[in-house]
Amino acid sequence: MQDVISRLPLQVARVARPSGLLPRGSTLFCDFDGPIADVSNRYYNTYQLALTATQADYATQGISLPIRRLTKGQFWYMKQNRLPDTTIADWSGLSGPQVEDFLAHVARLVNCSSLLNQDLLQPGVRSALTMLQDRQIRVVIVTLRQASQVLDFLHQYDLATTIGQIYGPDSAEIAYGNRTQHKVSQLKAAIADQSLLGANTAHSWMIGDTEADVCAGQTVGLPTLALTCGIRSSIYLKGFAPTGVQRDLYNAVCYLSNSI
């Protein structure tokens, strides 16, 4: 279905560029990890478990690794400023093939169900989604997380009815890498499908917490709001020239609503 949708002709070049407007009945495209789900605990615990697993791998060979565990604050600062995982591994005392071992453990662990359960609802999200629902704004999630995982999370917080549709990849491994080209493809598919459904996308915005979200919105001609509550810092996000920067989804919705 996704492949069929992505081949449909788009009219994104003629999408109207509103001046801070999100009229009643519009469609809002939004990322999931970061704007809606707080993934910081999961990512930090994945880091800790991967370090422990790497240490154990070498212990069986009689090698004691000089592990230096970053605090959550240190780890999240490095993630928010887009420092590579190889740099995080280096600062944690790993080198050479140890780094590749560590990265393999991260990829294996990050989407385990026991760790996915550590994701939390970002503060203010319930109020933000309720505000959008009251204004008859259709919220379409465009994510690199599997749609089934997103839906499970929304049901957990009784928020599934506030979301119009979810677009996510088949693979569970894409989200951690945050590949921009995948986000662009997902957003194009979402816009095409919403148009087929008769949804109003003339004044749509794209909201997200990474450069992939900003670049995807810009690629298809949508104004963008970058959120600093997720995995990228304000300084880093401003480097991609989003239409605006807000602290979280609640403040983003208030900004769009107050502009009407």
Word description of this protein:
The protein is of the alpha/beta class. 47% of the residues lie in helices and 13% in strands. It has two domains: 2-39 and 120-258, Rossmann fold (3-Layer(aba) Sandwich), CATH 3.40.50.1000; 40-116. It has 13 helices and eight strands. The two termini are 36 Å apart.
Features:
two-stranded antiparallel ribbon; Rossmann fold; 2 domains; 13 helices; 8 strands; 6-stranded parallel sheet; 260 residues; alpha/beta; disordered N terminus
Gyration radius over CA: 19 Å
> Total strand count, please?
8
What share of residues is helical? 40-55%
Strand order of the largest sheet: 5-4-1-6-7-8
Structural class: alpha/beta
Shape: elongated
CATH fold call of the largest domain: Rossmann fold
Task: Summarize the helices and strands and which ones pair or pack.
Elements lengths: L1 H5 L19 E5 L6 E2 L1 H20 L12 H9 L4 H7 L5 H13 L3 H4 L3 E2 L3 H10 L3 E5 L4 H10 L8 E3 L6 H4 L2 H17 L3 E9 L2 H9 L4 E4 L6 H5 L5 E3 L2 H10 L2
Parallel strand pairs: 1-4, 1-6, 4-5, 6-7, 7-8
Antiparallel strand pairs: 2-3
Quick recap:
The chain is α/β, with parallel strands linked by helices.
